[in-house]
Amino acid sequence: MHRKVSITTYFDFNTPVIVLKSLFLKYDSDRNNYLNRDELKTLFIEDLGFSTEQCEVYTFLLDKDGNNKISFDEFVSWLKSGEHFKNISNKSRYQRLKKAVEMFKKFDVDNNQSLDRDEFKRLFISLNGDPPKLDAALAELDRDGNNKISFEEFLRWLNWVPLDHF
C-alpha cells in the first residue's frame, strides 16, 4: 500500500531552488538535465509513494511539450503550481485522467508522448471529425506550434478535468 503524501512535505514556496535541483539531480542518472520516464517514475515511487498507474498519469501531465522528457523547469513549474496531488486524490478526476491517458496512448503509435499529424488524423476521424477540417483542428490544438499534440494540449481539448494548476 502506498502512503498518502502531501506535496508540502517536500516543497513549499520558500524551498530554495538548490533543494529542488538536488532532488531532480538525484534521479537524473544520465546527467542530461532531463528526467526520462523511468527516472521520473523512480522519483515518484521512491520519494512520493506513487503507484505505477499514478506515475504514468503524472508523467503525461508534467511533459508539457510532449518531448518525452521532463526538464527541471517543467518539474519546478509543477511543484509551484499548487496542484498538491489533486489529480490523484480526487477519485473522479483521477479516473478521467486515466481514461484520457489510455485514449492518448491508443493513438500515440510511436509511443513518444505526442501525436504527430498522422496519429492525430486517426484520432480525429475516429471521433467523426470532418476530414476537411483536420488542419484547422490541428492548428487549434497545437498551442505551441511544434506540429505535434502534447498530452496537455490533448487534455485541454477534451476538457475533462480543470487544468488551472498545470
From TrEMBL:
Record-linked Pfam families: EF-hand_7
InterPro entries the record matches: Centrin_CML-like, EF-hand-dom_pair, EF_Hand_1_Ca_BS, EF_hand_dom
Record keywords: Calcium, Luminescence, Photoprotein, Repeat
Origin: domain of life: Eukaryota
Domain (EF-hand): residue spans on this chain: 15-50, 61-85, 95-130, 133-164
Family according to the record: Belongs to the aequorin family.
Protein name: Calmodulin, flagellar-like
Record organism: Hydra vulgaris
Gene: LOC136079370
